[in-house]
Amino acid sequence: GSGLGLAISRQDANLHHGWLTAWGRPNQGAYFRLVVPRQPGGVIVKSPLPASPTDADRSDDEEER
Protein backbone atom coordinates (compact mmCIF):
# COMPACT_ATOMS: atom_id res chain seq x y z
CA GLY A 1 0.00 0.00 0.00
CA SER A 2 2.97 2.38 0.14
CA GLY A 3 3.50 2.58 -3.62
CA LEU A 4 7.04 1.19 -3.52
CA GLY A 5 6.22 -1.68 -5.89
CA LEU A 6 5.46 0.68 -8.75
CA ALA A 7 8.59 2.75 -8.07
CA ILE A 8 10.75 -0.40 -8.05
CA SER A 9 9.13 -1.65 -11.26
CA ARG A 10 9.77 1.69 -12.95
CA GLN A 11 13.43 1.55 -11.94
CA ASP A 12 13.68 -2.04 -13.27
CA ALA A 13 12.22 -0.90 -16.60
CA ASN A 14 14.77 1.94 -16.81
CA LEU A 15 17.74 -0.23 -15.82
CA HIS A 16 16.87 -2.93 -18.37
CA HIS A 17 15.86 -0.54 -21.18
CA GLY A 18 12.28 -1.74 -21.02
CA TRP A 19 8.80 -0.29 -20.67
CA LEU A 20 6.42 0.09 -17.78
CA THR A 21 2.87 0.99 -18.75
CA ALA A 22 -0.27 1.30 -16.68
CA TRP A 23 -3.96 1.09 -17.54
CA GLY A 24 -6.93 1.77 -15.29
CA ARG A 25 -10.62 2.56 -15.30
CA PRO A 26 -13.08 3.23 -12.46
CA ASN A 27 -14.62 -0.05 -11.28
CA GLN A 28 -12.32 -2.06 -13.58
CA GLY A 29 -9.13 -1.95 -11.51
CA ALA A 30 -5.59 -1.31 -12.63
CA TYR A 31 -3.29 -3.23 -14.97
CA PHE A 32 0.48 -2.78 -15.08
CA ARG A 33 2.76 -4.12 -17.80
CA LEU A 34 6.55 -4.42 -17.43
CA VAL A 35 8.35 -5.42 -20.62
CA VAL A 36 12.11 -5.97 -20.77
CA PRO A 37 14.29 -7.34 -23.59
CA ARG A 38 14.99 -11.08 -23.54
CA GLN A 39 18.69 -10.55 -24.23
CA PRO A 40 20.98 -7.92 -22.67
CA GLY A 41 21.17 -4.95 -25.02
CA GLY A 42 18.10 -6.14 -26.93
CA VAL A 43 15.61 -3.73 -28.39
CA ILE A 44 11.87 -4.00 -27.79
CA VAL A 45 9.84 -3.26 -30.90
CA LYS A 46 6.39 -4.39 -29.73
CA SER A 47 4.98 -5.68 -26.48
CA PRO A 48 3.90 -9.34 -26.40
CA LEU A 49 0.88 -8.32 -24.28
CA PRO A 50 -1.97 -5.84 -24.86
CA ALA A 51 -1.91 -2.49 -23.05
CA SER A 52 -5.16 -3.29 -21.25
CA PRO A 53 -6.73 -6.49 -19.89
CA THR A 54 -8.42 -8.64 -22.52
CA ASP A 55 -11.75 -8.46 -20.67
CA ALA A 56 -11.70 -4.65 -20.26
CA ASP A 57 -13.79 -2.12 -22.12
CA ARG A 58 -11.19 -0.65 -24.51
CA SER A 59 -13.49 1.55 -26.55
CA ASP A 60 -11.43 4.70 -26.00
CA ASP A 61 -7.92 3.31 -25.32
CA GLU A 62 -4.95 4.86 -27.08
CA GLU A 63 -3.17 2.82 -29.73
CA GLU A 64 -0.30 0.50 -28.79
CA ARG A 65 3.22 1.86 -28.84
Put the structure in a nutshell.
The chain is of the alpha+beta class and 65 residues long. The protein is built from 1 helix and 2 strands; from the N terminus they run αββ. The chain has one helix at residues 4-15; strands at residues 19-25, 29-35.
Can you put this structure into words, describing what you see?
By secondary structure, the chain is α+β, with helices and mostly antiparallel strands. Helix content is 18%, strand content 22%. A two-stranded antiparallel sheet has the order 1-2.
Task: Give the tags.
65 residues; alpha+beta; two-stranded antiparallel sheet; 1 helix; flat; kinase; HAMP domain-containing histidine kinase
Order of helices and strands: HEE
Q: What average pLDDT do the residues reach?
A: 80
Largest sheet: 2 strands, antiparallel
Name the overall outline: flat
Q: Strand tally, please?
A: 2
How far is the N terminus from the C terminus? Answer: 29 Å
